[in-house]
Specification:
With 489 residues, the chain is of the alpha+beta class. The protein is built from 15 helices and 20 strands. The chain has an 8-stranded mixed β-sheet with strand order 6-10-11-20-19-18-15-14, sandwiched between helices. Strands 1-2-3-5-4 form a 5-stranded mixed barrel. A hairpin with a 4-residue loop joins strand 8 (204-207) and strand 9. The longest helix has 23 residues, at 158-180. It is elongated and about 90 Å long.
């Protein structure tokens, strides 16, 4: 019998004994009055009633020193024979384990070593823990187990706990920034009849009540929010989950949180000023700095932001002129650079693969501009060069961390681009957009000049300098039983 099994059996025995003594090991409520941080901040001798999880327990015969933890912090609790009622002292020693949730009453004092502690006068068991917790100092070691049992990783690793508090502040900072700028927060459908607003492979499912196929959204309501511009709203945004049935790597997940905003009577140049201001606010308020190290890149949000031109950047790093090339030359270059690519996509998608190679060499912060119209079917053309669109991408640490553009509001041009996207889809490009007739209909009623922009939680993971999956509180994992079957094969 393993050591862990012995511990579990012993705890089950204690659980049985608690019930035999008429003690409910899982009561429905607690009368907690103070957080642990409030206990630490109180005057010595203050009577308190607090609750939390017992994370260490050290019995020294007539005295016991333990640590109690809640969301606000940890505090030492002391039970001593002659000071703590005998019944409470005995119950704590014999029937309480690390991992149990308890409620205590007592008063604060300072030990001989100067540690603020609570002298326990009463104790109530709130939850009996059956499984032993990981070692408080060693924590979980296996990377996959950390993600699968994130609750234990958070419990034993304060850095992980603080990261998710910081992530909450990240989204709240974006929300408060936009609200202060007069944007209206909206909610748009997660289930859609057709995929729109991005080039991505969707998840498909069946809507039984309507007896129709539907898709999980691949954008944060882009086409819906632009319909709201048609309705004369001028500033809207949405923060929510979106889904793309694609690969998983350091920067990509299949479901993740995204923010998109739409600003009527603004173009991409006004949008760049707003985005730069927002990113600086995030850096200062969430991370307390404008300077970051991301991989091998040193980034200073406080310096002048760069402007990178799509065409000239590709030419600089690959010697290819994107407007004077062909599929053969691009594929030869991709093969030379040992870059994987999809054989079913057209010339412009292959050029975009080249761009992503070049992007890795750019530290930023800066904006990519001048993208070809063929890879941006929802962006407005540049009047001075109709081959290109008024699009921006935020470049940080060699990656795209935000995307926006002057929205195309010409319904004829938009319909032609949708038709070209459908031709690409028929040719095998799974990321090509659908032809959304209801959006074209809305555009024909008229949409004002509009700037749209989106940024995902990739920004947070980059500023943390961590893979995006590690920055998701409960990432999707392959079921353990399936993994076991695979191993057996």
């Amino acid at each position: 019998m393993s050591r862990e099994t012995q511990i579990i059996n012993e705890r089950l025995r204690k659980l049985k004994e608690l019930k035999a003594q008429g003690i409910n090991p899982y009561p429905a409520k607690s009368d907690k009055k103070q957080t642990i941080q409030e206990c630490l901040n109180s005057k010595l001798g203050t009577k308190i009633k607090t609750a939390g999880r017992l994370i260490t327990k050290r019995d020294l015969g007539k005295i016991s020193f333990s640590k109690l933890k809640d969301q606000s912090g940890e505090i030492q609790i002391v039970l001593q024979k002659g000071e703590t009622p005998e019944k409470i002292f005995s119950q704590f020693k014999k029937l309480t384990d690390t991992g149990d949730f308890i409620e205590i009453q007592g008063e604060t004092f300072k030990t001989k070593t100067g540690e603020i502690s609570i002298k326990v006068k009463n104790l109530t068991l709130l939850t009996k823990s059956i499984y032993p917790l990981p070692d408080k100092y060693a924590g979980l070691k296996d990377k996959e187990e950390k993600l699968r049992k994130r609750y234990l990783d958070i419990l034993t690793n304060d850095k992980i706990k603080e990261m998710f508090i910081k992530k909450s502040k990240f989204w709240n900072t974006i929300r408060s920034f936009l609200l202060e700028k007069g944007f209206l927060e909206v909610e748009t459908p997660v289930l859609e009849n057709s995929t729109g607003g991005a080039s991505a492979t969707p998840f498909q499912t069946k809507h039984n009540a309507l007896n129709t196929d539907v898709f999980l959204r691949i954008s944060m309501g882009e086409l819906w929010q632009k319909k709201l511009m048609v309705a004369c709203y001028e500033k809207t945004f949405e923060i929510g989950r979106q889904f793309r049935n694609e690969g998983m790597d350091m920067e990509h997940l299949q479901d993740y949180t995204q923010m998109e905003l739409y600003w009527a009577y603004a173009d991409y140049k006004k949008g760049m000023k707003l985005v730069e201001e927002m990113y600086k606010k995030i850096a200062k308020e969430v991370f307390g700095t404008l300077k970051f190290t991301i991989g091998n890149h040193k980034i200073d949000f406080g310096k002048k932001w760069e402007i990178y031109d799509y065409e000239s950047t590709i030419k600089k790093y690959t010697k290819i002129n994107i407007y004077q090339t062909d599929v053969k030359e691009i594929k030869n270059k991709l093969n030379e650079l040992k870059i994987d690519y999809d054989l079913n996509v057209d010339q412009w998608r292959l050029i975009d693969v080249l761009w992503k190679y070049c992007r890795k060499k750019l530290s930023g912060p800066g904006f990519l501009t001048g993208q070809p119209v063929e890879i941006a079917p929802l962006a407005k053309r540049m009047p001075e060069n109709p081959k290109k669109v008024e699009q921006i991408q935020v470049i940080i640490g060699g990656s795209e961390i935000g995307n926006g553009y002057s929205e195309l509001n010409d319904p004829i041009d938009q319909e032609e681009r949708f038709q070209k996207q459908m031709e690409l889809k028929k040719a095998g490009d799974t990321e090509a957009m659908d032809h959304d007739t209801s959006f074209i209909e809305a555009l024909k009623y008229g949409m004002p000049p509009t700037f749209g922009f989106g940024v995902s939680e990739r920004l947070f993971s980059y500023l943390m300098d961590k893979p995006i999956r590690e920055c998701v509180i409960f990432p999707l994992m392959k079921p353990e039983e399936k993994k076991e079957k695979k191993k057996k094969k």
